[in-house]
Amino acid sequence: MDELLRSLDDRRRRIMRGGGDKRILAQHDKGKYTARERIDLLLDDGTFREIGAFIQQSRTGDASGDPDAPAEGVVTGCGLVDGRLVYVFAQDFTVYGGALGELHGQKIARLMDLAAKTGAPLVGLNDSGGARIQEGVASLDGYGHVFYRNAIYSGVIPQISVIMGPCAGGAVYSPAITDFIFMVEKTSQMFITGPKVIGTVTGESISAEELGGAGVHSSTSGVAHFTAESEEAALQGVRRLLSYLPQSHRERPPVRPGSEGVTAPDEELLRIVPTEAAKAYDVVDLVRRIVDGADFLEVSPHFARNAVVGFARLDGQPTGIIANQPKYRAGGLDIDSSDKIARFIRFCDSFSIPLVTFEDVTGFIPGVSQEHRGIIRHGAKILYAYSEATVPKITVVVRKAYGGAYVALNSKAIGADVVLAWPTAEIAVMGPEGAANIIYAREVAESEDPAAARAQKIRDYRERFANPYIAAAAGMVDDVIDPRETRRKLIEWLAVLRDKEEVRMPKKHGNIPL
């Protein structure tokens, strides 16, 4: 028995060393941690339980496995984050550059199955050069097993990807299917084809960072939802995100005890939002004044900045926040912001997270490029996502709510449970200026003082049509509220809607306009 135990200890030591001291040192020299070090940073101290440590591809058919691929280049297991169960896999770049082989893929797939069966989130720490070429088509089959589970477990358990090195080819598709992607600045990249291939095929010269770095994917492509300056910061960001999420679709989001509850009316809200509809302000300032502790986790803050989405708490209840951002493009909706909003809605609905929408929108942004690139199709995604969602849905019309954008952003007609409006709200087919130019064009032109006549017609239109009381009289707004009472009203309505149930017609699934 002693000899067997010594053999066991020897095998464990070899596995724990990954690709060996030289490769571990090279990883550290790049400012990167090893797979096991990353897991330790993510999880509560001492809680990691490894699964499949001895899995190895055997070249000889015996139990020795491939000496160059301990644990098949991926560490898998489970542990706790703030005392809650989480499954995690970490690709080991010191072993074949983290390349995915047949058993590497099977290890991840089995872990995903276990996460779904037990109902706990999955976090993938990705650091991979792609498929293990020396295994041929078997490595592609390994990818397929992972992709399939990413898809079928979508909406079953939260899936989070952290890109912690160069991820190329098939290595990027699994993260793309997951719910959220974190990237580390300067050390992580994502691309289907790398700079060398692009240079050969198209003649374009570009660096890996310029092609698929954190800055590109967080601001231009929208692939990455969060970026961090270091691996430690990225993993802390994952822990923060998990604090808002339920373990699975079978549970409700975790309510944080000890919230400050309803606070006194907030005079600052009157100063943040200008009364003049054309003046810009930062809607994030508005959100932070209303949510618990001014704590707002914004998702994709650098992409489609004319829309804001993210997580906050109201009286301890995790809540999905959606808002127009008047600081950028007047908060209008375009292709990218439509995609950003629709996907966030669908995530929150999958995991029973209530939605609160702060509306201040001039409409869908006009332009030939937007029309030709499919703003109709993309804008329809918002309509579809809000209509499909069955979680509690509350809208606060802060200022402008014009045209089709008013309807799309959680109006009563497409399923809002409660619509509140500030006295500054203007709800109409279009803005008073544009409407007056069309409706009263002849009267203005024939008047003795066209400028004065036009100004008067704008005031008339605003009084007759563009105010919250007209919409409230028609039942499209449930209440016109004092802005200073917004937090109290939202907390009260979320409590009312907490046990909301909504039964839909049975079907296999809908067909969102992708």
Overview of the molecule:
With 514 residues, the protein is an alpha/beta fold. It has 3 domains: 241 residues, 2-enoyl-CoA Hydratase, Chain A, domain 1, CATH 3.90.226; 192 residues, 2-enoyl-CoA Hydratase, Chain A, domain 1, CATH 3.90.226; 34 residues, no CATH class. It has 21 helices and 17 strands. The protein is elongated and about 100 Å long. The mean pLDDT is 90.
Question: Could you list some keywords that capture this structure?
Answer:
about 525 residues, alpha/beta, 2-enoyl-CoA Hydratase, Chain A, domain 1, 8-stranded mixed beta sheet, 21 helices, 17 strands, elongated
What's this, in brief?
By secondary structure, this protein is α/β, with parallel strands linked by helices.
Overall SS class:
alpha/beta
The radius of gyration is: 26 Å
Number of E-state strands: 17
CATH domain topology of the largest domain: 2-enoyl-CoA Hydratase, Chain A, domain 1
CATH class of the largest domain reads Alpha Beta
The amount of beta strand, in percent, is 15-25%
Number of domains: 3
Largest sheet: 8 strands, mixed
Number of helices: 21
- The N- and C-terminal alpha carbons lie at a distance of 61 Å
What is the CATH-assigned architecture of the largest domain?
Alpha-Beta Complex
- Mean pLDDT equals 90
What is the helix content?
Answer: 25-40%
CATH superfamily of the largest domain: 2-enoyl-CoA Hydratase, Chain A, domain 1
Low-pLDDT segments, ≥5 res: none
Large-scale geometry = elongated
Q: In terms of topology, how is this protein built?
A:
Blueprint: H1 2-16, H2 21-29, H3 35-42, E1 49-51, E2 74-81, E3 84-91, H4 102-118, E4 122-126, H5 137-152, E5 159-163, E6 166-168, H6 173-177, E7 180-184, E8 189-191, H7 195-202, H8 208-212, H9 214-219, E9 226-228, H10 231-242, H11 268-272, H12 283-290, E10 297-299, E11 307-314, E12 317-324, H13 335-350, E13 355-361, H14 368-373, H15 375-388, E14 393-402, H16 403-408, E15 418-421, E16 426-428, H17 432-439, H18 441-446, H19 450-464, H20 468-473, E17 479-480, H21 486-496
Helix pairs in contact: 4-5, 13-15, 17-19
